[in-house]
Design goal:
The structure is a single chain. The chain has 565 residues and is an alpha+beta fold. It has helices at residues 2-22, 50-60, 242-252, 356-364, 436-441, 446-450, 467-482, 498-517, and strands at residues 35-37, 40-41, 74-86, 91-92, 96-105, 110-124, 168-183, 196-213, 259-260, 269-270, 275-290, 295-305, 328-340, 456-457, 488-493, 526-532, 539-544. The chain is built from eight helices and 17 strands. It has an eight-stranded antiparallel beta barrel with strand order 3-5-6-7-8-11-12-13. Strands 14-17-15-16 form a four-stranded mixed sheet. A two-stranded antiparallel ribbon has the order 1-2. It starts with a helix and ends in a 21-residue tail after the last strand.
Amino acid sequence: MKNSKSLSLILGLSACIGSVNAQVSPSHPYTAPHPIYGSFSVTDSNYYNQKQLAQHNEFMVGNHDYPGKPKDMWEIGIKGGMFTIGGDVDAVLATPGFGAHIRKSLGHTLSLRLEYMYGIAKGQNWQPSTGYQYAGYANPWFYRYTKNSVLPGGNVWDPIRYPGVYYNYKTHVQELSLQLLANIHNIRFYKAQTGVTLYALAGLGVSTWKGRVDAMHEVRGDAESAAYDYSTINSSGVYANRKDILKQLKDLQNGEYDTPIERDPSRPYSDMFRGNIAPSVSGGLGLAFRLSPRINLAIEDRVIYNGSDLLDGQRWDEKGTLSPDKDLMNYLTVGLNFNIGSKSKRVEPLYWLNSMNYAYGELRRVPEIVLPDADGDGVTDQFDQEQTPAGCPVDLHGVSLDTDGDGVPDCKDKELVTPTYCQPVDADGVGKCPCPDDCKAAVPECAALLGALPSIHFAPNSNKLSDDAAATLATVASKLKANPNCKVVVVGYCAATKRQQQLSWDHVNKVIAHLVEKEGVSSDRFIFSSGQEGGDCDAVDIRAAAPGEDGPNTVAPPHPNLRKN
C-alpha cells in the first residue's frame, strides 16, 4: 500500500503539470481575466498593438503558449549633477552637468535611451609647469601673453627666473548618445513589485567641446602687460602647500577664461559648435527608486571617452613628451524620471515589471487535483484492474490479495494459507485434504511460511530506525499478518560490556516496539532475545520460531541508566 501511495503522488504531480499545460491548450481556453501586472489583465486586448494582437488572440483560444507583449509607457527624464574631466590638469570638483533623455523598453531586461548631456568642467594646477614650451614653438599661443612663459634671449630655459605657468581650463562639453540599459533586478521571486532597480549601461554618441584658459587680466593697451605674473606666487616655505597656493592663484586670476585652448588636430572642428567634434563611447551604472507608478528617482554615474587628450587643453609633460593617456569625462547625476502614456492602454515600463508575476499567478490558479478512486482501495481508477470490496487489501494493480492462491481473497478467506494439495477450497477458502491426519502433518512450519526474514541495521552507537529499516519492518509485518499462527525471534548481539548489553537490548526492544505500535502486530508474536554472541553489534536478526520454541516477549533492561531513546 505504501507503493500505491507513492504512485498516487507521482500521478498527482503529473496531473498538476498537465493542468498548467491544459490552460493554454485548445480544449482549455481562458475564460476569465488574470491580472498579472497590477491593473493589467492578460485578457484585455487594449494593451496590445496590432502586431501583438494576433498572438494575443491565438493565446486566448489556446493555440499559442505565450501571451503577447503588452504596450508599455515611455520614460522621459531630466538630471543634474557634477561633470568633471580626468586629464593632465587637476580637476575642480562640483562643476555642473545636466541633461535630458527619452527611454523605451525592449523587454523586461533591456531598454534603449537617447540622452543629451551638457557639462562644464574646470581644472586648476597648484604646481607650475613648463612642458608647454615643447609644443614646437617657444611661446605657445594660448599662453603667449603670460609673463614668465617667454624664454630669455639666449633661448635657455631658466626655471628660477621663469618658473612656468599654472595650467587651468574651463571646457564646455555637449554629447548626444544612444545607450543600451540592462536591468535584471526587477525579476523577483518573493514579491510582485520591486521598489529599486540596478542597471548597467553602454552607449555610442557624438561629443563636441570647446575650452578656454584664464591667462590674462583685462586687456588694455599692451597685451603682455595684461598677462598674469606667476612669479608673484610664493610656492616655497610655509606657502608651499596646495591650499595656500590655490588661494594665491584665485586672488591673482579674474576667472574670465579669456584665451582659447589648443584645438585637437586629430579631431575635426565644428564651426556650429565652435569646437572640436568626435564620436564617443560611454559606460556606467545606475540605481533607480520607484516613487510611484509614474515617477522614479535615479542616481547614475557615467564615464565618457572620445579619444582626445585635449579636453583640458594640455597634452605635453615636463620632458617634452606627448602624454600617452587620453582624457576621460565623468558625469555623476541625480535624475527625476516620468512614465508617459495612458494607463488604460499601456502598462508601466517593462523594466519595472516582474516577469515572474504571470508564471506565479498561473501556478496559484491550478485547481486542487482530485484523482478518482471509485472503490477507495488507494489505486486510482486509471490503473485499477478490479473494483475491490471495501476493506480488502490490494496489490499495486488494485487486485485483492490472495496469499495462498486458492481463488478466495484474503479479506474473505477463513484459512489464509491452504496447502496446494488441500485445494480446491470452499467459498470460505477452507481446503479439503485427502486425509485429515495427513493434512495436519503436512502443514508447513513457520520457517517455510515466513521464509528468510531480513536483518535490521542501526548506525553505530545509535538506536534510531532509518527510513529503509522502517520499510523493511513493514515487509516483516505483512508476512506476520499473513501467518497469524507463527511467532518470530528478535535477536540482538554483543554483551562484552554493560554498554553493549544495554545497546543490544535497546535494538531488540526498538524493533519489537515498532512492529507492535506502528505496524499493529500483536506483542505475543515475538520472542525477546538480546545480548547474544556471534553477530553484528549494530544489527538485529529476525527469524521464524521453531516448533515448540517459546520465550518472553519483553525483558527488563539490564542497565536502565544507559538506555538510548
